[in-house]
Design goal:
Layout (H helix, E strand, L loop, with lengths): L4 H19 L4 H8 L3 H8 L7 H11 L3 H8 L12 H6 L6 H19 L7
Helix pairs in contact: 2-3, 2-4
């Protein structure tokens, strides 16, 4: 099975998580416990086999004491060009009143609008 953009993004996220875990001198088991996820699940994330939810990324970031935004960028949820603090993506991701599914749906719609508008010229509006 060929890996698409998502597979490569997830793989780089896994590599990044492992680097951060090792730098923090945490075992896989310790990080899993602190983040509130199972050992096998965290291992699959590190190996690029699973794409974690926003909530799981937040828990991992907190356990590693790193920026959740950095993990969102590595996971391909937001792009570095969006900037930090003012982006629509971060507002959606940080909204505790939305479910995971609602957040993903909003992000998908927003991305599709951006992609559609990138192909139009100002005269098209």
């Amino acid at each position: 099975m060929a890996k698409g953009k998502v597979g490569k993004t997830v793989e780089s996220l896994g590599d990044y998580l492992k680097e951060q875990r090792v730098a923090s001198r945490l075992s896989l088991r310790q990080l899993a416990e602190q983040a509130g996820v199972s050992n096998p699940y965290l291992s699959q994330i590190e190996r690029g086999l699973r794409k974690p939810s926003v909530e799981v990324l937040q828990q991992i970031a907190k356990a590693l004491r790193i920026s959740a935004e950095q993990l969102y960028i590595r996971a391909g949820i937001i792009s570095p060009e969006d900037g930090v603090g003012g982006s629509v993506e971060l507002a959606v991701l940080n909204d505790s009143g939305l479910t995971e599914r609602q957040k993903q749906s909003l992000l998908d719609v927003y991305s599709s609008f951006l992609a559609m508008n990138a192909g139009s010229t100002p005269a098209d509006d």
